[in-house]
Amino acid sequence: MTTDPINSTFDYLVVGGGSAGCVIASRLSEDPSISVCLIEAGGSDSSVLIHAPVGMVAMLPTRINNWAFQTEVQPGLNGRRGYQPRGKTLGGSSSINAMLYVRGHRHDYDHWAAQGNQGWSYADVLPYFIKSEQNHSLHDDYHGQHGPLSVTEVSCPSALNAAFIQAAQLNGIQRTADYNGAEQEGAFMYQVTQRNGERCSAAKAYLTPNLQRRNLKVLTGATVERVLIESARAVGVQLRHGGQRVVLKARHEVVLSAGSFGSPQVLMLSGIGPQQELHKHGIRITHELPGVGQNLQDHIDYVFTYRSSNNTQTFGFSPTFSWQMLKAMAQWKRERKGLVTSPFAESGAFFKSQPGLSMPDLQLIFVPAIVDDHARKLRPWHGFSCHLTLLRPKSRGTVKLASSDPSAAPLIDPRFFSEPQDLEVLMRGADIQRAILEASPLAPYRGKPLYPLDQHDRQALEQDIRNRADTQYHPVGSCKMGHDPLAVVDDQLRVHGIAGLRVADASIMPTLIGGNTNAPSIMIGEKAADMLLRSRQEG
């Protein structure tokens, strides 16, 4: 962010200024004796589109602060390419997402620990969630009030949310007081990462308040080309910044926090990864690690939408609402209140696709607006939509290199629906989703479906899902934590076979958690910072 000459040596280099990277850089630099350089390929987070919550709708479908990746052709999606928006700015995807504060189910973390990842059970990670959090309305053993990340209620909710929750209750989904607390299952209003009517991204929470620290350097617009390895130890990075090649050295460690696409890409560009993949692009092998870029998992998501004649409780394109939004923008500028604070995704539910399951396997996200193809298809007038998300897909994909050029986007292949069970569960969920949306509480707002469908025609439902389903923006697992042949890092997040190199972001998740991944990524950043500081004290 500054234009000062770059000091060539730091104690720690953190690659990626996203949800985990901002946490790590901030926590390490709390000690004035530790020098840290945070390296971000995107720009600063000064845009009003980032800070005004409703600005998400301008960034998500475009390249504004967004890498806007595409997947490889997906046979499971009838030959379509999926869309993968990722934050290209300080704060990473926490600067462009819907701000939902969701931790996942306690079982998810106990499952990680059961796979041999010591220190990653729910009891182990809960203190880091609490440490990170400043919850403005929940005060109990599950929540914190003194952390940097502001968590609050939706401040200007649509009346449709109450109708949605009533409709869920009529379909057997009871209300839960706190989906991040004792019981995840149920319907609820989402909590969001906002402070005083503005987005509270990881950058806003952890980084921006601390930019004056003399021991913290933040580089934006810097593309890391490779990690420098000497005698099986990471000693620095080579990057492009301001049109020049720069080498930065690390006295202690290099931490990759470039996300589930960026971290495996940097590892492979550094010669760390599957031998065949590296040979294909003429990259000299530094350390063969077959699991790099494997084990990619993502939440597949199916949206059903209804048009509505209501233009006061829904977002949409109409003369009346355009005037409402003009007044709302003036109100937000003046008071930081009103419609501009909406995350669009306001209420939801966690539920089971069939009785007898030990925990919810599906999630609903209700939106008082028409949602079509990630808002890339703009529809006139008003409506409401509901996302249906498969929480623990069986399908596994890959992240590979397109070339040895660090500026080239990686090849992303989630392999959606490559496991037939994923489609079966989503179809069962679609029946419940539709029953909720067609229940009586939503009748005053409900018009015709955007995509009419005979729900009883199972073949038609399957094809509608294959034609329209796509990511819920939660890719994980491509640098998985563990001790099996495809593991990339151990349970201290150290890259197997390379000293002084760790990965700390959503890519280390061995399995996808049952919920949105931003809060868990921040937790991973908190836990990684503790590991680094403990290692420094011990060594």
TrEMBL record:
Gene3D superfamilies: FAD/NAD(P)-binding domain, Glucose Oxidase, domain 3. Residues 87-110, 259-273 form the Glucose-methanol-choline oxidoreductase N-terminal domain. Its cofactor is FAD. Signal peptide: none annotated. SUPFAM superfamilies: FAD-linked reductases, C-terminal domain, FAD/NAD(P)-binding domain. Keywords: FAD, Flavoprotein, Oxidoreductase. Pfam families: GMC_oxred_C, GMC_oxred_N. FAD binds at V224. InterPro entries: FAD/NAD-bd_sf, GMC_OxRdtase, GMC_OxRdtase_N, GMC_OxRtase_C. Belongs to the GMC oxidoreductase family. This is FAD-dependent oxidoreductase. It comes from Pseudomonas alkylphenolica. GO terms for molecular function: flavin adenine dinucleotide binding; oxidoreductase activity, acting on CH-OH group of donors. The keyword Oxidoreductase applies.
